[in-house]
Structures are given as C-alpha cells and as structure tokens.
Structures
1.
Amino acid sequence: MKRTLGLLLVALHAPLASAVYRCVDEQGHTLFGDVPPAACVKVPIYEVSKSGMVLRRIDPTPTPQQVELQREERERHEKEARAAAEQRRKDLALLNTYGSATEFDMARDRNIEPVNGRIRAAEERLKELEQREAQVKKQMVGWTDPGGKDGKSAEPPAWLVEDLERTRGEKKSLQEAIGRYRKEVEDLRARYDNDKKRWIALKAAGGSAAPEAAPQSEPVKAAPARRRAGY
C-alpha cells in the first residue's frame, strides 16, 4: 500500500520535475532554463512541459509605478461604469416621465412661472425702496444745506442715516435676489431644452437604447408650489 502511494506521488510530481521555463526577454530573445531565467524578470515567464505544453504563466512583479497606473486605470473603468449606469437610469426616468415633446414645453413653463412671479414681486418692492431712498435723501438735504434752518449746516439725525443705510441694504439684497432668479430661469430653460433633445434622441433609437450623449439632469415634471418673494 505504501509503495503504491509513493509511486502515485512520483507520478503526480513528474510533470513538474520535467518542466522547464521559457520566456522572451526585452530584446526579443527566447530563453529556456530549469529555473526562471534572470534576464526575464521584467517579462512573463511560462512554465512548460518537455512536450511544450504550457503549465502556467508567471507574470513579472509590477513596479510601484505600474501598480499605481493599474490602480488609476481600474478606478477610471469603475467611474465610467458608474456614469454609464447612472445615465441609463436617467434615460429610463426621462422616457417614463414624458409622453411627447410638447410636454417638455408645458413642464418648463409651469416651473418657470413661479420664479417669474418672484422676480415681479422683487421688482415691485425695489421700486418702493428707490422711492423711499429718494425721500430720505431729500430729507437729509434739509439738514446739510447751509441755507436751511438758521442758515447753518447740521448733521442729519442718526435715525435718518440708519433709514438710508437700511433702505440701500435692502435694495442690494433685492438686486442680488433678482439676479439669482433670472439665472434660475435660464438654467431651467437650458435643462428642459437638453432633456427634450435627449428624449427625442432616445425615441429615435427605439425608446430603449441609450445612444452616447453628455449626462443629463434629472427630469422634472411638476412645478413647485407658489411662494411669496424672498431674498
């Protein structure tokens, strides 16, 4: 029994014992050896049997630079795969949200109208502030004009100065808010225009395939609830 087991182990190790190593070095020379040739440390080495059958491949140990490049390449592929999956999700949402190209225009107008309402309210308030500023300036002239009370110039009262500063501060905030609102309208128009073009391209491709395109924003259908102007 022991003799049979010993012969079996010898038979199993026989291919390895008779194997040789083969590689093509960096100069293109094919080398053989009972051990991996030292000249092939930077290239793949193949362990082959005497009959020439490849038993296994031994890849060279990568350098730190190669390890870093491999890591970057792997991360790039993973990032591209995530982006492609996200694009497919957005495309599906776009197809499920809209039934015709006209619906994009309707949804766009519904979402823009509340923003335009805030712009109109802010502009009306801005006119009131401009009128108030003119009134305060007129009042201040009476205090600083040498030809005024007793023919002497006087400093305007603190409450009047504070009123002017407060009015000007509110004007500035409103002007900044109006700028943001107008930018929001531009962004909404561009967003719906891009989504509409993407939807048309998807429909032309059969409604399910995803032709190459720049990433799209999430489709929006319902307009937000109307709210009072704020800044």
2.
Amino acid sequence: LLSALEENQDILEGTSLFKKISRPVIVNADQTPQYADIRRAGHEGGEFLFVPKRFKAQSASSVDPTRGAPKSDAANTTLELAFWQSIQSSNRAQDFEAYLKQFPTGTFAPLAKSRVAALQETKPSNAQNRSSGQPRLDGEWVSQVLINPFDKNDHYRLHLELKQLGRKVLGAVRRVSTPDSPRKIGGSKRGIVNGVLEDGVMTFEEPFQVLMGSKTEDHKRTYTGEILQSKIAFIIQDTMGNAPIEFTAKRQPTP
C-alpha cells in the first residue's frame, strides 16, 4: 500500500489503488483482498481519493491572498474531475450534495443539482418497489452444479433451507454430491448464524471446523446474496484464504 502511494503521481481513486495492490497481496500472502462497502458500518457511498502532496501545494498557491478566492488551475480542475468521476454513477443524493459543497460553482454543478432533485423525487417510489417486488425467503433454494477447485472430481449443489423472520434469516446449508459426480461426499447439514436481510441483500455465516494435523481449527463461510425476482445471486468468502465462490440459487417447488 505504501509503495503504491509513494509511486503514484496523480490523483488516485480507491478502486484504482486496489487494482494496483491486489495481485501482490494474493501472490505473497494467504489472503484474498476485497474492495467493497462494509455492510452495516454506517457507510454512505462515495469514494476515497488519494491526492499527492504536490497537488495540495499547488492548490494552496492558487489562492489569491487579497481576495481569498481560488484561481482556476490544472490542479483544481484535475481534483474536481476525479471527484466527479468517482460519483457520476452513484444513486445516492448525498454524493452529489458533497460535490456541490466542495465545488459549488464547478463545471458539473448544474448536473449535480439535477441529479439531487431527481434522486430525492424517486427515493420513495424506489423503496416501495423494493419492498413489494422482493420475494420472501422461506423455503429451500438450490444452487447450480459447483465444482471443487481443489478436486475436479467433486461435483455438488448447495441446498439452502431458509426461514425469514422480519429482518432475521434462519436456516441451514447442505452440500449434496450430484448423481454424476466422480467422487461422492456425504455432506452434513450445518446451521447458519448471524443471518440478516437488509435492502434486498442477505448475509449469513456458516461455521465449520478443519482438522489441521492434530488440532481442530474453527472457520466460517460468509454468504452474501442479492435477492432477485426468481433467484438469489450469492458470493461466498471463507476465512481460510480461498478465492470467493459465486453462484446462483433457485427456489425448489413446494411439494
């Protein structure tokens, strides 16, 4: 991280910084880095911008000492453009309000004001659509066929038994080998914990244990699922440093 920042000569977005350092981390450590909002941590969107000191110095020198007003220069223009590019696809009015606070007479100020007005008008209807269009989770959901990356003969499906109680999600996960799997593994049912449903996104954890030599280690898999009309799009990340697994699950018909 420090090397990437020291070598950087321009205004750098957080996403670009992540791309620079993710591969060195993966090949030198037992970690799979991710770049995303931390859920339920009070995040409100936006983006990190890493600005070299020389830009700050240029910005300070561009202020007219007699009037206190910043002059138009390349440094300010570059900073404004980087700010705008980081929020232009946002669906949050707060991001455009932050731009207007920083650049009240900026190049994109009229467009930012228009976006704020449009987002504030559509917010209630969007919330209503999410609430009415989101299916309940109760029932059994089954994934497509998955292949163990460490054992290509291991083919299986995940069976998710879910129960929705308000914002809470309860249930269990079963791992079932497919009929044509060259290797059959008897998967046990594991209960899920810390299940929460919020704004159409469900998260829960599946605790499990791994025998390492003569010792047993406690681990967990974190499931993050975006609830769509007829399926759930999942990403699983475990605590053993393996690569994330992406899959979709469809509801099983009720007998």
3.
Amino acid sequence: ALSVQANAYASHLRQTTINGDASDLEPCGQIGGLLCLGSEIATGAGGQPIRDFLHGGTYAQLNAAATDSAAFGAGLQALYKSAPLGGDNQILLGASYDAGRTAFRATSTVGAMTADRGFEGPGVVIDMPDGTIAPVDVASDNDYVGLYAADIFKPVAAASITVSARYNFSRIALRDRLGQALNGSHDYDRLNPAVGATYDVTEGSTLYAGYAEANRSPTPAEFSCADPKAPCSLTNFFVADPNLKQVVSHTIEAGLRGRSERFSWRAGYFHVDATDDILFAASSIAGRAFFENIGRTTRQGIEASAEVRLGALQLSAGYVYTDAVFGQAITLNSEDNPKADANGQIHVVPGDRLPGIPANTLSVSADYAFDRVWSVGLSGRYADGQFLRGDESNLNPKTRPYVVLDAYARCRLSDRFELFARIENLTDAKYETFGGFSPIDKVPIAEVPNASNPRSLSPAPPLSAYAGVRVSL
C-alpha cells in the first residue's frame, strides 16, 4: 500500500560566447575627438575617455561573455493507497530541492566595423562609471524548495477527484565581484492550490476538468536587467538589481478524451491568466532594454488531436488555437517601429495580441511500416503569422503564415541497432520564425544601399538532411 520514490541529480555547464554588434558609442557632438554614449563621455579602464579613433568611421562592439554554472537537487515523495468506505484513495506527499550556482563574466570592447560587417580592433574595453556598459563579474545563488500534497479519491468507479496543493519558496541572490550595483537577495513564496476531476462517460471516453495555480519567481538575468535607468543589451546582462514581482498563473481547463483499439482522440479548452507577467521591454536608450512587470496577460484557446492506426499506416493530427493577449494598457518604447508616435512610443490596449505567438497551429503526420525492418514517414506543420517584437500594439503586418514538410525513414536492423535518415524542410520553404524592428541607418549594408524598411525578420532553416545510427545498450 505504501511506495516511496526519490531522485537526485547534478549537472554542469561551461559556456563562452562572442557576439558582434553595431556600437552605441558615437562621436561627441560638443566635444571633439571623443566618443559618447548618449550625452555621456564614453570611458575605458581607469575612467579614461575613449577617443574618436576612427574619425568618422563606423564603430562596432564585441561582447564577450563566459558562464560557469552548476545545478543540483533532490526529490522525495511517498504514495499511500487505501480504500476507505469502499472507494479507492491515494495520498501523495513530497518535497523537492533545486539549486543553481552560477558565475558570469562579460566585457564589451569598441573597435571598427569592417566592410563585411565584422569587428576589427583596437578593442578598447568600455567601462562607463554609471554601469550602463561595463565589465561584469557576478555570482548568483538560486535555491528553490517545494512541499506538496495530493489526495486522489474515486467515490465511484467512473469518477476520480484530485485535490492538491504545493508550497514554493525561492531565494535568488546576486553577488557583485566588481562593485555593489548587482548585490541583492530576493525571497518569494506562495501556496498554490489545484483541483481536478475526471468522469468516464463511456468505456472509452473520459470527461475532465481542472483548476490550478502556479507561480514563477524572476530569474537572475531578469533581476539584473530590471532598471529602466540602467537598461542592458541582449548580450550583456547584469547591470542593476532592482526588485520584480513573481508571476502567478491561474489555469482552467476542461475537455473530453477517448481511446479504442485503433483510435485515440482529445479535445479541450484552456484559459490561463498570468498576473504580474514579465516583459523584456525596449528602453528609451537606443539598443537597450529592461525587464518589467506588465500586469495581467491571458492565453486561452482550444486544442484537439487524433491518432488512428490502419494496419501498417498510422495517421495523426493536432490543432491548437491560442488567443494570447495583453490584459491592461501599457506604454512601451519602440522607436524603430514605423507606427510609433512622435516620442518613439507605442500604446498597448487590452486585447492586443502578444508578439511571437501564432493564433493557429496545425500538425499532421503519416507513418507507414513496410515490415518489421523498414518504415517511412512524412510530417507537416502550419502556423499563422505572428506580430513582431516591438509591435505589441499590433499596428504593423504580421510575419507570413507558413507550411513546412519533413520526411524520414528508419531501418531497424535488430532490437539494439537502427539506421535513420531525415530531411527537414523538404520543399525548402522560405519563411520567418521571428521578427522585430531595426534601425536602418545604424549599420551600412552594401547589398541594400537604400534600405528603408525597418522590419527585421529571422529566416527559418533551409532544407537539411541527416543520417545516422542509433544504438541501445
């Protein structure tokens, strides 16, 4: 009647990155021979002003970062099964601990941008006294503790009721090893209840419904870039340590699912309200941004899937409609958005869609097994266009909808060895997976000398092929 489960884990990540970009530094307007960041004179090591060494050339910036991170944790839970009053009852109790220890270092150097948009020295390290761009050396300690309990009760054979709760406590601490700007410690806790029920309508179909709450504490990166007065770039986080509220979600779901010998299906509705959601918002300083709480957002919709097996042929399909919207009015900076106002701002109203989330997605697949050795398959996916980042007010065209096909084959030589081949984007479709706005006069583009469209789109991977062997020991 009693079972106990436990696990423990440890992992380590070491990563270095180098990223080039157009520099925000430019010749000072009033002081000749020096570089400025906005209205401030740019400085290097020891507070020395950085000279305008290109004398009218285009400046580039090289951002180098190194991360050394360890993660570890453990969990323990016990499940007790009993039968009070003739019904099935299961009681679950558990606890978990997860932790991370991370060291992060970064520097930004300024040099010349070459004709092919590369970086060329001298590579002067930027060290602004206000910390907007400066060397970073910070350590973060993340500790998460969870206590949870659940009672699963079957009052009758066809019905099941689950009542549960989880208490979460988190502590995120930052230690600045070069100064004081990043020092900080933040504690969060919350008790999250949940309730769910299922009912077997027929032998092969089940009705389900549930309500659950959850919370997410901000990450160290979000903490370190949450000050609108000290925004950061995408490649150089950790500039300040103000507070942020934790994100709390409230989820309602309901639906019907079923299964037979050859056919399975599921259809449901979901509604998620997130309070104090966190957005990476553009700063009034060009090329910089910061994290901020933006109030309530809502994601709701329907999802449906089905799978059928017809002898050697297996067909499956899935569809999701997602209505992801802002829940309250906010004003955001987006100076490169052609629909922004005279101050370079956009005005979001309740009901505007969240960027980066397509409304409709559809996936289909077909697998055919010639015998126990050979099988082939074809899969496809469709997605609507999505609004660009920086167009939270939904005033510009979306990215284009797209269809992508993949093909694959398997040859099972034995229970342990399998050959495989896969072709992704079989038709070499041209489509975009992400979009934003970029300044068209910041970087000279020889291929487009008269660029006038600030839409910046990320192309999807082209046709690609893979082949290999899988071995199971």
4.
Amino acid sequence: MGVCRWHYYRGSNSIYFAIFTFVIILGFPLFLNAEVIKKFNSADAVALTFDACETKTPAYFDEEILNFIIKNKIPVTIFVNKKFAERNIDRLKEISKYDFIEIENHSANHYQYMQKLDNQTIVNEVKDNEKYLIEILGVKTKFFRFPGFNYDNRSLTVVESIGYKVVHANLISGDPDKNVSAEKMYKYISKKVRPGDIIIFHINGRGYNTHEALPKIYESLKNKGLRPALLSELIN
C-alpha cells in the first residue's frame, strides 16, 4: 500500500498547495482510479459468469450445468481457483478447448477475506493460480474475481498493479443458498436483467438449483433479445 507524504509550499497568496509524493512499498503503486467492474456497455449482451472454487471440502463440476452450456454452446466465463483446478484437471482441460468457454482467475486458495492478507501474499494468490492455469491449459488469465467479493482499496490496487482487471457482478443469482429455488432464481433474474449486466452463478456443486433454473433463464434472455457473451469480448 502506498504511503503518502505531504510537502507544503507557501504561495504568494498564502494558500498552501499539497503535493503527493508516493512511497512505494513492495513495488505497488497507489492507484486512485482502482475499480471493480460490475457492468459493461452493451445494447444487447449480458455476461454469464460461474465460480468454480474449493476451500476445504472437495468440489467438482456440476455436470448438468456444464453439459447444458456445452450442448447449447453458450458463451460463459468460469472463474476457477487452483484447488478446484487441481481436483478437476481433466474436465477443465476438456472444456478449455471450447471457444465459447473462457477460464479466469479466482485465486489459489480461495481465502474469503483477501483484504486481510499482506501485499505479497495477495500477489502469490493470483500469480500461483495464473501459473498453474498456464501450465495445464496454456491460458493466460486477465480477469480476477475476489472470493466472496471481499476486498478493500489496497487489495484491489495490488491485483490491478500486476495487470489484472477485477470483475465481480451486479446481478447475484443467490444460488449457494439452498432456499433459493430454481423458480425463484429464474423469476428474479428474468425480471431484473438488463443489457450490460454481469450475472454470477456457481458451477462447483454449490449452485444448488442452478442446473434447473439455467435453461429457463437462458430462454428468457433470448426472448428479451439478450445474448450471452464472453467477458473478453465485452471488456477491453
């Protein structure tokens, strides 16, 4: 995190002007324009994004969701963490060959509160997963999603300073909650969705009713004239 030192200069009008001098710690600058992307500009596109993550409990791809995506060739972005990738390496290699599926970075260990980590550990979380995905898939990730959407300006700045754009979502499916039924999920998203929205689901077995809701959501999008698109198409 950058530390600001103030230097004051007295002008002829007796007004003090403040000039920032940034002291760089661990080589990370303080970006004043750091931002999390939650929407994008489009007249007809939305982004369907899926988290594929694992912490302590083994997790696997929800094959019903995955097979529906593949069968219909639906453009989706999947944010994968390293632990999940290691457990699902063969399936991950298979789906990464489809041009309508892109794999992006969701950290190595899926710490829920990365803002509590020091700068170098944050970098390691991102770069370790990046390195692993390059090794197994030949894919260089460029988008990052904080676990739990938890971050502060320092952690966001650190991630951006190593070349990543942070992408969260503005339309939350709520699918990790078992009480969110498929019908409730479908009705909520169908009512709220607008062009430029980024929608988040889970594809790691924690999106309990997503496999049932997704076909109806997909049909609703088409009926509204909305097309799913990859984040790489939508965000420069």
